[in-house]
Amino acid sequence: MNERIDLSLEQQFSIRAFEAQVDHMSLEQAQHFLKEIYRQMMLKENMYQNFLKHQWGIEPGPAFE
Predict the structure, then answer these.
(1) d(CA 61, CA 5)
(2) Which one, of 54, 56, 52, lies nearest residue 44 by Cα?
(3) What percent of the chain clears pLDDT 90, i.e. is strictly above it?
(4) CB contact burial 16-41 (16+ within 10 A = b; e otherwise)
């Protein structure tokens, strides 16, 4: 698995915009923002795991009523 994965031009632009936004934050704002991003990353990971379990037939999908 030595394949290099690059970011698209759009993703690179998004990173630059994000950097500019963070550069203008106070330390307290940046800490709060970082904590929130980490929480959202964990939720995203859980969502992917649940989708894969459902797709592979390991667990039933969510029941929507």
Answers:
(1) 31
(2) 52
(3) 72
(4) eeeeeeeeeeeeeeeeeeeeeeeeee
